[in-house]
Design a protein that fits this description.
The model has no long low-confidence stretch (mean pLDDT about 95). Helix 4 packs across helix 5, helix 5 crosses helix 6 and helix 8 runs antiparallel to helix 9. The chain is an alpha+beta fold. The longest helix has 27 residues. It is about 40% helix and about 15% strand. It contains twelve helices and twelve strands.
């Protein structure tokens, strides 16, 4: 239905993930548009509505699943046409069920397909008729438009699944299917046993190098920092403008920010003034109006990486603060830069990403990895 179409909206600086699919909105004529579904259960169908309100929009025909022959339609000003012998694959109930499944997936919860496959696992572990009936009920709760894809097997489709839950001598949900023979049922069982073996191998492979996602909660470094060192700075000390002096070559700079901007400018006298500025904000201000060094944009990530290495090598107590973030995603706000800051999901967050890289390299050193 929605594949890998990723989007989001920002609410109070928090990014709400979403996805979208095509749909028709009927507002006089029919309009082919994007129906956007968000993880918090809101749906944009020419206005944000809750899931219950969306269901009412579908049942009222505002979000159209019935396309009348001869009705006019348009698509974002690209084309207009008249329906001729239209066929819709969705009923109101199917569309609502698919959207509710999408919200579950966006939140990392099992959707109707996931719940079905979990019920099948219970049956395979304990093959009672009660468990088979529960698996069949869960399978039939998957929207009919999605059942064929429940196993993610484009060759077998859902044949093993509908055969297994029907049982030998039973009938599947497809009227054209003959009664399930014992041979067919045994083949379905063999399919799931082989599938379980493949899944076990994949789990071992995936676990060998560690989890794909961070295990620690994300760390948010808000855009605020003291101009003077404090006794217990906590994660504020991870910010580039925290006053932790670093020496680069033969020059001492009051902070990473001072060093970064001093290295960015083309004229040595301005670089000296930047480095001597009272605060990180003042250093940025002095450098802002000066010409950059040639090739600075292409070099700045490498420069920042080396400056962060210098900071945490020269201040082991601050390195401990960074290491204490474990494997957390570091979200770094910088209202002055969409390149370095995340800024409510609207920036590239390079400062946060480099802190994660330097943290990993610190672990290599602290962990005594030989040969590196």
């Amino acid at each position: 239905m929605t594949g890998k179409r990723n989007t989001y909206r920002v609410v109070d600086g928090v990014r709400i993930p979403g996805t979208w699919r095509h749909a028709f909105v009927r507002n006089g004529s029919h309009f082919l548009t994007d129906l956007v579904i968000y993880a918090d259960g809101l749906v944009d169908c020419w206005g944000l509505v809750t899931l219950d309100e969306f269901e009412e929009k579908v049942r009222s025909g505002w979000v159209a699943t019935t396309l009348p022959d001869g009705a006019r339609a348009s698509a974002h000003g690209l084309a207009t046409w008249t329906f001729g012998e239209p066929r819709s694959r969705l009923s109101p109930e199917l569309l609502v069920a698919e959207v509710r499944d999408t919200v579950d997936r966006l939140n990392g919860r099992p959707d109707s397909t996931g719940r079905c496959l979990a019920a099948v696992d219970v049956f395979l572990a304990d093959r009672t008729e009660e468990n088979r009936a529960a698996a069949r009920t869960a399978f039939l709760a998957v929207p009919a438009s999605r059942r064929r894809y429940a196993l993610g097997d484009m060759d077998s489709k859902d044949w093993p699944l509908r055969t297994l839950v029907a049982g030998a001598g039973g009938r599947t949900y497809l009227p054209a299917d003959p009664p399930v023979t014992q041979e067919a049922y045994d083949r379905a069982l063999a399919y799931f046993e082989e599938r379980a073996g493949r899944k076990a191998e994949l789990r071992v492979r995936a676990a060998a190098d560690g989890p794909a996602a961070p295990q620690a909660p994300a760390v948010h470094l808000a855009h605020s920092c003291p101009d003077e060192p404090v006794p217990d700075p906590g994660r504020l000390a991870l910010r580039n403008d925290y006053p932790a002096p670093i020496t680069v070559g033969e020059v001492s700079h009051p902070s990473v920010t001072h060093a970064y901007w001093a290295l960015s400018v083309a004229r040595p006298e301005i670089a000296a003034a930047v480095s001597a500025a009272d605060t990180a904000a003042a250093a940025r201000g002095i450098a802002a109006g000066a010409p950059r060094r040639e090739g600075w944009e292409q070099a700045r990530v490498a420069v920042m990486t080396r400056l962060l290495h210098a900071k945490f090598e020269q201040h082991p107590e601050l390195a401990d603060i960074l290491l204490a973030t474990d494997d957390a995603t570091v979200i770094y706000d910088d209202v002055d830069s969409a390149f370095w800051g995340d800024n409510g999901g609207r920036g590239r967050n390079w400062a946060g990403r480099l802190l994660e890289l330097v943290r990993s390299e610190l672990r290599v050193r602290h962990g005594g990895f030989s040969g590196l």
